[in-house]
Amino acid sequence: MSAGTPKSLASSGQKPIQEICHPLGAEETASVLTPSPDVGNTITSIGGKTTRVEFDLPEYSVRRRYQDFDWLRTKLEDTQPTHLIPPLPEKFVMKGVVDRFSEEFVETRRKALDKFLKRVADHPVLSFNEHFNAFLSAKDLNKRLGLALLSKMGESVKYVTGGYKLRGRPVEFSAMGDYLDMFTQKLGTIDRIAQRIIKEQSEYQVELREYGPVYTTWALSEAELQGPLEGVASCMANCSSALDELTQDMSEDFLPVLREYVLYIESMKIVLKKRDNIQAEYEAKLEAAAFRKEEKASCTQVPTDVEKCHDRVECCNADLKSDWDRWQNNKRQDFRQLLTGMADHNIQYYEKCLAAWESVIPLLRDKQPQETETEED
Amino acid sequence: MMADSGSEEIAVIGNTDLTSAELENNIKNTMVEIEKWTSLLRKMEISVGEAEKRTGKNTVNMQEIYTVYLIETRPVDAVTEGIIPAPDSLWRRYSEFELLRNYLLVTYPFVVVAPLPEKRAEIVWHKLSADNMDPDFVERRRVGLENFLLRLASHPVLCNDKIFYIFLTEEKGWKEMVYETGFQAKADSRLKAMNAAFRVKNPDKRFTELKHYSDELQAVVSQLLRVRARVADRLYGVYKVHGNYGRVFSEWSAIEKEMGDGLQSAGHHMDAYAASVDDILEEEEHYADQLKEYLFYTEALRAVCRKHELTQFELEMAAQDLASKKQQKEELVTGTVRTFSLKGMTSKLFGQETAEQREAKLQVLEQQIEEGEEAVKEKNTESDEFVKTAWIDIEHFKDQKDRDLKEALISYAIMQISRCKKGIQVWTNAKECFNKM
């Protein structure tokens, strides 16, 4: 379903990839549900094709569980600390609230995982990551899991909770932070509105389901009007099903994607924070070096570790800016797709209802013995 | 073929040189010919033009505000070449319409008399005002009253009624004229008869079926109207919430660069979508009114059935009375007492009656039998006449009902088609805006 064409990106200056060939498209095939000894883990099959030279075979097919995706993500965060790693769908789902084996839940999760892989595959740096390669092609990831658990409390944590205090954040990064906050707010509002609409539509549906049958009851007492009344009743039943489909589509396609974006925003915020900490670390070191410099008046060279720090800051800022641009672009495309999808669902709903009502008109007009008035259309 | 209710296009030729007095003369002359026409509408345009508020004192001498409706009439052939003279007009309030209808019910019991629109707004979806003074309600009532008059004017029997004609043409003194007909006494006895409990042995099956049908129709249309109102309520909610999208897209567009314009425009379409439901539901009220008219018609149907029962009952009573009188005569003649009577008992106790006494009794009885036979004959004719005329009207009503309700369903379907098309339009526009994001 969502295994569509890979997105082509307006990525900034990553020429080598474009020269190779089409970006890697990770195409998911079927999701396989296999209850395992421990409490239900869903296993996903990933099938994909690649034209990339790094991979041994042009085609591959592996089976992965959520844990594996989690492993991959952690690995990417560790090895590419300055980059934005796309988020995974929520790991823990409260039992009893959501049925972890329901078709809807599995499908929603599958789509989110698919999105994750696509985003990584589209990233000019992340897509070359060795762990990503392994994830897609290695028959057995299990060996690495042990290591993963140990390194979990790794570098990424350090960068997020670094104890350095930031002096002067460049304006553009502050603006990014502000934007993310406001954007989160708007998404929250949209989520609430969408939920409200679904609720109102459900209540409308309840009444509609009672309305149609009354016409059927009436038809029983009538002779000449029986056909027309029954026609109206069946028409309403059709509109009712169309409404069901709309509500379902919105619940399944729209809301989950919207919610998942909040996670994406969170990932971005974390990257911004990391950057802040790297800069703060640099500033602290620079200050300390300047202080030491005062004591040893002879030393004019900037210590190498400070320079390294400075480089790291510059590198981080550059990576962040390019990631930000990519993120903005993705966001634009994602929301364009999401909202046009919403419009499409609604258009389809109205088209179904229109067809139903238009088909009833000839039925209503048919039995009139004399047509003395002209058509009202 | 019965004349249709509804406006008819009639070509008219006239003379522009007529003075108003001559015009009036013309009208008076045509009045005489009214009886010849089966439909008043052939001669006269009728409309209920406006509504106004008046204040006045009511029957208990308290101040009240009430609405009056302007009835305009214009003889069709008084329309001269290109120049349409002003219509005659007068003001009537709702209670006068009620009086007219009651008069007609009493005077023509075999007619299914068209109902009046609601006095008070009932079965409305909550956003629509239930206030009698609300201009939308008054407007819908105006339309209903006009429809009522047109129904009467196109009815082959009712259109010839003089009281109806005066109702349309003379404002003052009409009420008094109605009461002078002595209809009040008839109305009272009719009311009593309607509420009386009696059992008919041999009602005409068609009337029994008709009564059954009118009960079913009343039940189902009431339910339909109630559920429809609830559906309208919910639909309103769905549309209006989309207005919130308008607001949030607008706010969101302010923090976006390239996406801003698309979002903003899409937001406007969402606002338009939310706003569109008001007109949609207002139009649907027209459908509800059409259903309501037939809901109220069931009462008139039941009244005619009731009248038949009453007539039939009176006939059966008269026949029963005659039969018992004949029985009594036979007993007197043959001397056998088949039925127990106190008189018989007392005569046994106090001695037999004389031959003269018996002869006198016999004569009385024979007189009574003769009268009784006349009465039965009369009642029979009355009953037959009623059944005949009522059934003609009922067939007429059934055809009208089938036609009208079919039209109502068609116009309802057309409303839904229009709503769907609007929905497609709005979302297509929004989609275009989203695509530009």
TrEMBL record, chain B:
Organism: Oncorhynchus tshawytscha (Chinook salmon)
Family assignment from sequence similarity: Belongs to the sorting nexin family.
Record protein name field: PX domain-containing protein
CC per GO annotation: early endosome membrane; plasma membrane; SNARE complex
Alphabetical UniProt keywords: Coiled coil, Protein transport, Transport
Listed Pfam families: PX (PF00787)
Keyword Manganese: no
GO molecular function: phosphatidylinositol-3-phosphate binding
Organism lineage string: Eukaryota, Metazoa, Chordata, Craniata, Vertebrata
Keyword field contains tRNA processing: no
Coiled-coil regions listed in the entry: 355-382
Biological process (GO), any one: protein transport
PROSITE patterns hit by this protein: PX
Cited SUPFAM superfamilies: PX domain (SSF64268)
Location of the PX domain: 47-174
InterPro entries according to UniProt: AH/BAR_dom_sf, PX_dom, PX_dom_sf, PX_SNX4, SNX4, SNX4_BAR
